[in-house]
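Subject: design request, 162 residues
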């Protein structure tokens, strides 16, 4: 089944499902569009046995990404509102920071939960590796590997396409 056929047959159904899930016509339209765009950008058309389940899997991932971005933006704007007006970064700088934070969040989401947890404990909470090892129930050497893996992922984010 090609993408055009899927679109014609299932777009309005998917849009309705998304509208019920998101409660917003515009967001539902955007995510429905992005779902089919993802299909179009795939190098080979996948063989789809269960079109609704297939489309829902893609759409759910996009909805989760949308909610994460909203949470990130909300936290950013709350932090910006605590700054005195004369110290806040320019709108351009704010957009750059938000885009960077989104990229970092996406990179961290690709990590296994223990790797991500170890990295955040080390980098954000500045916990020693021995303490992280105890929290996660692994060896210090494993914590070192976890943090190195996460740092490499961040490095790839910065230098991966050069």
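Subject: RE: design request

Done. Sequence follows.
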């Amino acid at each position: 089944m090609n993408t055009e056929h899927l679109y014609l047959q299932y777009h309005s159904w998917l849009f309705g499902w998304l509208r019920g899930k998101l409660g917003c016509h515009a967001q539902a339209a955007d995510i429905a569009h992005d779902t089919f765009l993802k299909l179009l950008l795939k190098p080979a058309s996948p063989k789809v046995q269960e079109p609704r389940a297939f489309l829902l899997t893609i759409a759910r991932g996009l909805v989760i990404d949308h909610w994460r971005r909203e949470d990130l933006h909300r936290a950013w704007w709350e932090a910006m509102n605590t700054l005195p007006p004369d110290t806040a970064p320019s709108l351009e700088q704010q957009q750059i920071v938000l885009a960077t934070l989104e990229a970092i969040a996406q990179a961290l989401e690709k990590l296994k939960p223990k790797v991500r947890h170890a990295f955040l404990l080390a980098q954000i909470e500045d916990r020693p590796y021995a303490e992280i090892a105890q929290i996660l129930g692994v060896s210090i050497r494993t914590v070192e590997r976890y943090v190195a893996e996460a740092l490499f992922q961040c490095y790839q984010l910065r230098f991966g396409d050069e």
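The longest helix spans residues 51-81.
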